[in-house]
């Protein structure tokens, strides 16, 4: 698997935990890339048009800042860095590109080609953060995405599944943490895109 972590500007040094910086401060930008080697549950392309809707999430994740939790009740953000998009938008993009990589459906997009698609993928982003370990020098990235597939013709939920992935980070430095995000997201979106065709099958 080709490493798919992209830094869009120069990387800053070590990152201590902090709250949101002043909005005028230039921030280094990180982007996660979708996996490409995905084993779909079908070998043929399905004649389906699929809409990936923007995930719903909590206010703490509805930002482009990279979240890290010192404990279960506290949310902080890495200083001087951000994701390339707000987290829900980035997740939607990763879902789209992962499904496209399988070649398993006729069309997948954010908007339908006609008045509506055949199916809508509605998701809730529950976790997309790094959690500090007890030693406070290392962390574990935790991702959780609840997925529901809805048939547009009758608004029926035809399939649902919760996807989870985690990855250890040997340091709380930004580069190491983002590499752990990349590892966990590769697992999660590979599993999602591999599962989706079976959810769309008759």
TrEMBL record:
Organism encoding this protein: Falsihalocynthiibacter arcticus
Gene3D superfamilies named in the record: ABC-type transport auxiliary lipoprotein component (3.40.50.10610)
Signal peptide: 1-19
InterPro entries per record: ABC_trans_aux
SUPFAM superfamilies in the cross-refs: XCC0632-like
Residues of the ABC-type transport auxiliary lipoprotein component domain: 30-188
Keywords for the protein's UniProt record, in alphabetical order: Signal
Keyword hit for Signal: yes
Protein name as annotated: ABC-type transport auxiliary lipoprotein component domain-containing protein
Domain of life: Bacteria
Segments forming a coiled coil: none
């Amino acid at each position: 698997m080709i490493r798919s972590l992209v830094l869009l500007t120069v990387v800053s040094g070590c990152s201590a935990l902090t709250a949101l910086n002043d909005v005028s401060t230039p921030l280094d930008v990180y982007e996660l890339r979708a996996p490409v080697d995905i084993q779909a549950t079908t070998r043929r392309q399905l004649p389906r048009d699929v809409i990936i809707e923007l995930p719903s999430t909590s206010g703490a994740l509805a930002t482009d800042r990279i979240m890290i939790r010192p404990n279960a009740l506290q949310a902080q953000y890495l200083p001087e860095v951000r994701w390339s998009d707000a987290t829900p938008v980035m997740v939607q993009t990763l879902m789209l590109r992962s499904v496209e990589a399988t070649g398993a459906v006729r069309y997948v997009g954010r908007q339908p080609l006609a008045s509506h698609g055949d199916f809508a993928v509605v998701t809730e982003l529950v976790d997309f953060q790094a959690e500090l370990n007890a030693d406070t020098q290392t962390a574990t990235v935790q991702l959780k995405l609840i997925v529901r597939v809805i048939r547009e013709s009758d608004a029926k939920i035809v399939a649902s599944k919760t996807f989870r992935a985690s990855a250890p980070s040997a340091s709380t430095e930004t580069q190491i943490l983002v590499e752990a995000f990349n590892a966990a997201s590769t697992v999660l979106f590979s599993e999602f895109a591999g599962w989706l065709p079976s959810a769309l099958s008759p």
